[in-house]
Write a structure and sequence with these properties.
Keywords: Signal. This protein is α+β, with helices and mostly antiparallel strands. It has one domain. The protein contains four helices and eight strands; from the N terminus they run H-E-H-H-E-E-E-E-E-E-E-H. Helix 2 packs across helix 4. The longest helix has 20 residues.
């Protein structure tokens, strides 16, 4: 028969090993090296180039901030903060005599933010870039999509009208 102390020790070791396994499944803070860029965010880098200032105001609204970049034009910044509902899982702390405590917590889906930067040269989009804590576990720049998705659709529609694919 196994003594109660040994049984408790074995149980704690199993719980500790389970905690180690769970912690190895946590997504890293920076997933940029292991995930691909969101398709819409990537499309915006190409499809928004050439849109006029008025076009961008129509599809993305007015920028949160602007900065003069000298000979490189102007940089328009659209700031977006995302506060998602968090899921917190707390593992109770277990302590038995001289054996160390086992416990902890796991936070899933914390918020983030995105600064979408659009460089304007001669009144037209020359470049689109993203900055901030804007990655999701499976997609880079995913928190920026809501800023540019309307502009990608707008640019595609304008392209179709110009090429005659859609009649007015």
């Amino acid at each position: 028969m196994i003594s109660p102390r040994i049984r408790t020790l074995v149980c704690l070791l199993v719980v500790s090993a389970g905690g180690s396994i769970l912690s190895s499944c946590v997504a890293p803070d920076d997933t940029s090296n292991v995930t691909k860029e969101d398709a819409t965010a990537a499309a915006a880098r190409k499809e928004m180039v050439g849109l006029s200032e008025a076009d961008v105001r129509m599809c993305a609204g007015f920028p949160t901030a602007t900065a003069d970049a000298g000979g490189s034009g102007q940089i328009w910044t659209y700031q977006r903060t995302v506060q998602r509902g968090n899921l917190n899982v707390v593992i109770p702390t277990l302590a038995v005599g001289a054996i160390p405590t086992v416990g902890g917590s796991l936070n899933v889906d914390p918020g983030g933010y995105c600064n979408t930067q659009i460089r304007m040269v001669d009144g037209r989009v020359a470049e689109v870039a993203y900055a901030g804590d804007n990655n999701l576990p499976n997609n880079r720049d995913a928190l920026c999509v809501s800023t540019v998705d309307g502009c990608v659709a707008y640019a595609r529609q304008r392209h179709q009208v110009r090429t005659g694919a859609i009649s007015r």
